[in-house]
Amino acid sequence: MAFYGLDAEDYDRIYSDRVLLSRIIRIFKPYRKSMFIIILLMLINSIAFGVLPVLTRTIIEQTNQSSYSLPLVVLTILITLGLNLLWFILHFIMQTILFRIVSQVSFDLRFKLNYAVLLQDLSFFDKFPTGKIVSRVNNDGARFGEMIHQSIGGLASLLILVVVIVPMLTINVIISSIVFIVVPFLFVLTFSFRKIVRKRTLFGQRSLALVNAFVQETMSGIQIAKTFRQEGKLFKEFNVINKQNNKVNRSKEYAMNMLWPLINSVIYILYGVLLYFGGSLIYKGTISVGDWYLIFQSFGLLFNPLLQLVVFWPQFQQGMSAAERIFSLQDAEADIEEGDYIFSDIKGKLEFNNLNFSYTPEKPIFQNFNLNIEPGESVAIVGHTGAGKTTLARILLRLYEFQSDNDSVKIDGVSIRDLKLNEYRRQVGYIGQVPFLWNDTIENNIKYGLPNASHEEILSVLEQAGGVEWVEELDSGLNTQIMERGKVLSMGQKQLLVFARVLLQNPSILILDEATASVDPFTETKIQEAMEKAMEGRTTIVIAHRLVTVRHVDRIIVLDDGKIMEEGNHEQLMKKGGYYSKLYDTYFKHQSYEFLEEHQPSRIKDTGA
Amino acid sequence: MRQQEIEKSSVLSIEDYFDISSEINLEKDPFENARLKGPRSWILSHLFYRKNKYLLLLYVVLSIIANFMLSFTIVIIGYAIEDIILSIGGGFAPNILYWTIVYLSISLGTQIIGVGQRVSRIILAQYLEEEARKEFYMSLLGKSQSFHDRQAIGDIMARATNDVRFLNFLINPGISNLVVALNNIIVPIATILIVFPDLSQLAIIPIIFVGAFLFSLKRYVTKLTPLFRSRHAEFGNMNAILNESLDGIEVIKSMAQEIQSIEKYRSSAVIFRDISIKAGYIQARYYPRLLIAFAITLGLTHSFILNYYGLMSVAEIIIFLGLLSTLRNSIDSSLYSFFYIKAASIGAERLIETMLTESEITNPSDPIVKKIEGKITFEKVSFIYPGTSNYVLKNISFTVSPGQTVAIVGTTGSGKTTMTKLISRLYNVNEGKITIDNINIQNYSLKSLRDQIAYIEQDVFLFSKSAYDNISFGREEFSKEEIIEVAKEAQAHDFISELPENYETSVGERGVQLSGGERQRIAIARAFLSDPRILILDDASSAIDAKTEEKIQNAISKILRNRTTLLITHRLSQIRWADLIIVLKKGEIVAKGSHRDLLINSEEYRKIFIKRFDKTYSELIGAED
What we know:
heterodimer; A: alpha/beta; ABC transporter transmembrane region fold; Rossmann fold; 2 domains; six-stranded mixed sheet; four-stranded antiparallel sheet; disordered C terminus; B: alpha/beta; 3 domains; 10 strands; elongated; disordered N terminus
C-alpha cells in the first residue's frame, strides 16, 4: 500500500515491548496504593460474582429434590441480593478511583510531553511540523488514556478467572480440562494479531497527525489561498489526506474486529462439545443437572474474562503504539546541553573564536569566524541574505548548537556552553525579524518576559517604544485582545510592541534582528529613536536591514559568506570606498531621480502622455 | 458583458463547485438544512446520507438476526436438558447429538453474520468521519477572512480531528453498543413471552426493570451533557495553547519563558483532567447496575415461587434465569453507548457552531464574470473589523484609472493594508461601495474578481512545499518551464537555483529559511504567473544589500507594467512611479496628489518623510527640481 506522509519522523524510535511496559508501569508507580485498592476491590468483586452461580445451583438442586428446605432457599436468595449490592458499591468505589488515576496519568503524560517539547532546541521545530507535534501530545495522549482504561479490565479478568476456575475444577476435572486445551490455542491465535494491530494503529495515529498538520498549515495560510483562489486546490489535497485516514483506520479496525468472530467460533465449538458430553454424563447419571448448569454458567462467566484476557494483548498494542509515539517525542534528544553557570550581572563582552557552524553539513555558514565585542559597544552586522547574520544572533542566544570547541563563544570570558540557559537568556534581549505576539491583551504581551511588571513600567516602555498614542485609541486600550500572532494590528504596531516587550526586560545584551518588513518612515524614525536610547549602556548587536540604524552604531561589520569583509564606523567605511560605501550609495540611489530614469523611462513617458 | 458562469460539463468536479459557489455555499450541500436544525438532525442526515443508510440498515438487521440467533442458543440448551431429563424418566435415549448439531450450526452461523455486521459497521463509521471532516473543511475554506481572523487555529484543529473523530465513535462503540443493549433487553423479554406462553407473568419483573432503567439512563445523559460540553471545549483550548506556543517557540526561548508556557498548558490540562474525573464519577455511579441486581434476585424468587406451586420445571427455571441474565449485558453496553452518543452530539454541536458562523462574503445571485479593465473607485467607503467598534477606514473616496499606479502612504495603523484587502473582498465594506470598471465588486463572481487581482503581501506566507508549488500553487496548467520563466522575471531564479534541491526544495515556514526579500520575490513570481489586471503590492522588503535591492526594484517595476496597481510603500523610488499618492491618517484620506504637491501641502506627508535619512524639507523638495 502506498501511503503519503505516513513515514516515521526522524526522532521516532522502536522500543522493545519490555522497555515500553516497564515505562508504562513506571508511570503508574506514584499511584501504586490506589492501584492496590483497585485490585483488592476487583478481587472481592470477582469472588462475589463467582459465588453467584453456586447460589443459583443451590436453589436448582433444592427444586429438583422432593422436599424443600424453605429457609435455605430464602437465605440463599437474600445472600444473592446482598452480594449484588456489595458488588455495586465496591464497583462504584473502584471505578471512581480508576477514573481518577487514568485521568491523572493522561494528564501527567501530557504535561511531561509538553514540557519535553518546549525544552527542545529551536532546530527541532525547523525540522518537524508543529501540527504533527500537537497531534502527538494531545491525540496520542488521549488514545493512551483510553487504552489504559480498557486494559485495567484485562487485569480484572485475570482475577475473575482464578476465582471461577478453582470451584470449577472441584466439580469435574474432565470437563474443566477441556478448557485448558483450548485456551492456549486461543492465545496463539490472538498473539499473531499483535504485530498487525500495532503497525496499523501506528499508521492510524500518523494519518491523524497528518490531517491535523494539514489543517493547521492551510488555516495559517488561508488568506493567501483566498486571494489566489486556491480553495479548490487545497480541498483536493485535503480529500486525499482525509481519504487516506479513512483507509488506514479502516484497515486497523478490520484487523481488530476479525479477531472476535474467530475466537467466538472456537468458544461455541467448545460449548457444543460441552453440551454433547455434559448431556451424555447427565444421562448416565455421572453428574447432576445442577452441576452441569453450574459448569455451563461458569463457562459464560469464565469466558468473558478469558476473552478479555486473550484479546488484551492485541488490544493493548493500540496503547503501546500511542505510548511509543509519546516516548519517542519525550526522548528526542536536544543538541544543546546547558551548564550551570549563572551570571549575577552580565557586563557584555562577547567573543567569537574560530566559530564553526552549519545547519546542514554540506553548507557551512561560519568557518573559523572571529569577532570580539566590548561591553557597551554597539555593533551592526550588514550583509546580504544568507551571509549568516541571523545565525550569529541565534548562536549567541544559544538557540542552536555550534560545531566547534567549547571556547568558541564566550560571554564575559565564560564559555556559552557553561551557562544556565534560562538565567542567561533573561539577560539577553532579542527582537526577531518577524514580530510575534500572543493571543492575549496588549498589556500581557508587553509584560511577557516580566509578568510582575507594574502598570507604570508598562506605560513607560510603551512610551519609549512610541506606542502610547495609538494604543490609547484602540477599543480597550492596553486591554485590547490582539488575537493569534497579533492579527488585529498592523505590521508597524506589532514591531513597536515587540520592542516595548524587550525594553521591559531590561537586558544586558540586546540583539536586534531588524524586521525586514518595512514600516512608514515616521514610525521607523520612532523605532529608531527608541532603539538608540535602548542601545545606551548595553552591548548591542543589530542585524541591519535598514541603513538608518547602521549610521549610529559604534562599529559596522560587513559580513559575506560567513566572513568579515570590512569593519569600522560609518565614516571610516564611507571613506574607504569599499563594499559598504557602495551599498550605502545604492540605497540612496533608489531614493533618487537618476535611478528612476535609468529603470523606468518608458513607463514615465507612458503615463505622462 | 454578463455571461453565464461556466459551461457545465456532465459531472461537476470539486473545482466547479467552487466556481459556481460563493465563498461559502456549495451548490450541492446535502447537509445544509440539517445543520440548521441542530446536531441531532445533522448526525441523522449523515447517517442516512447515500450509501450510509444501506450500511446502517444492513448493520442493524444483521445485529438483530445475530442476537436472536444467540438467545435462541440458550433456548436450545434448555430443550436439550428437558429432553435428557424426560428420557431419564421415560427410559428412551435422548438425541444429544441432534441438539448439539443444531446448537453449533446456529452459534457458528451467528459468527459468520457477525463478520458482515462488523464490516458494515466499520465502513459506516469511517465514512461518517471522512464525510463530516470533508464537510467541515469545505466550510472552513468557504469562510470569509474576518472569520479566520477571529479563530484560534489550534481550536479549529481540535474540531477537525477530535470532534470529528467522535462521529466515528458514535457508530462504534456508540450505536454498536446501543444495538447490543436494545437486543439484550428486547430479545430476552420477547423470548420469555414466546417460550412461556402460559406464564407471561414472568415478564413482569424484566419489564419493570426496563422502565426504571430508562429513567435512570436519561438522568445519566442529562448529567453528562454539560461536562462533555466543557470537556470538548477544553480539549480545543489545550490544542490552541500548544499550537500557539509552538508557533512562537522562538520568542519563548529567547525570553526564557518556557515555564510560563508550560504553566499555561498545565492549567488547561488540569481543567481537562478534572472534567474527566467528574465524568468518570458519573459513569461509576451508573444506577442500572444496581437495578439489574434487584431484577435478577427478584426473578430468581419469582421463578422459585412458581416452581413451588408446581407451575415451572427445573429446565424452565434454567431457561428463564439464562434469559434474565442476558439483561445484564445491556448495562455496560448502554453505559458506553450513551457516553459516546452524547460525546458525538457535543462534537457535532461544536462542528455545527463553526459551520454555521455566518460568512458575510457570499457570491451574488447573478455573479458577473468579465475581463477587468482596471478602473477602481472607492465611494465613501467606511469599514470596521467585524467584532470591533473602531472605524479602521472612514469615508474613503478616490478613483484609479486603468493601468495607473497609486501609492498609499501613512503611518502605521492608518489603514493602508486594510484598504487593499477590501478590493479583493476579503472583507465587505460597512458603508459606501467599491467599484471596478463601474460595477460594484459585490456583484462580481468572487472567482472572477480574485482571479484578476494579485496580492503581494507584507508578510509572505509560504506553504511547506516545493518552490515550484509555492509559485504555481500546484496548478497543473503551468509547466515547469513557465514557472522558471516567471521566477526569472521576478528575480527569484538565482536564489532558488542555489537551494539544495533547486525548485524542488521545500520552502515552508520553517523548512529553508528564506529572507523577507526572497519570500517577496516568490510572491512576485506568483503574481507574474497569474497575470492579474489589478496588482496590490504591500511593499515589505527593506533589503539592505545592493544586489538584492536592485533585483527587487527591477522585479517590481516589471510587474507594475500595464496593470492597475495599488502600492503601499514609502520608498521614494517607488512613490515616484505613482500617478497618484494617497495619504492616510487614522483611516481617513488627509491628502491626495503628487509627491511635490504633498510635500508642500500635506503636513502628515511631511511628517512621514521629513526625517528620512536626516534630509531636510528643502532637500526633499530640491530633489524634485
